[in-house]
Design a protein that fits this description.
- The protein is mainly alpha-helical and 115 residues long.
- It has one domain.
- 70% of the residues lie in helices and 0% in strands.
- It contains 5 helices and no strands.
- The protein has helices at 3-16, 21-24, 27-34, 47-71, 78-106.
- The longest helix has 29 residues, at 78-106.
- The radius of gyration is 17 Å and the shape is elongated.
Length: 115
């Protein structure tokens, strides 16, 4: 089965499970697909993969925005800001990965390899 066919089947299964489209097809994954990355939806990825993706994309964006929109004015150093951003990114990645893992088990979704 081609990647496109699997993706369509996965999206149908997710819709039938009552998961919102914005949740199973988030902007980051739409962007990755437009760039040619053939990644399964987050509900079909491993805990580690979801954690790493969430951490890597969230941390720098959130850290830079927070530094220029608030931390710099409050006198927070770049080092302190970087550590805060890393901790925030770790927590965000962990919570996101836990959510996708829990929800995919709760909805009894098919494994990506079996679609």
């Amino acid at each position: 089965m081609s990647y496109r066919s699997k993706l369509i089947a996965a999206h149908e299964e997710l819709e039938q499970a009552g998961i919102w489209k914005s949740n199973f097809n988030p902007p980051l994954f739409r962007l990755l697909r437009k760039l040619g990355v053939k990644s399964p939806p987050p509900y079909y990825r491993s805990f580690q993969s979801n954690f790493l993706t969430s951490f890597v994309f969230f941390t720098p964006v959130w850290g830079i925005l927070m530094y220029f929109l608030g931390w710099q004015a409050s006198g927070k150093s770049i080092t302190e800001s970087a550590i805060t951003a890393l901790v925030g990114g770790l927590l965000y990645g962990l919570i996101t990965a836990l959510y996708y893992s829990w929800k995919s088990k709760r909805c009894k979704l098919t494994k990506w390899e079996n679609i």
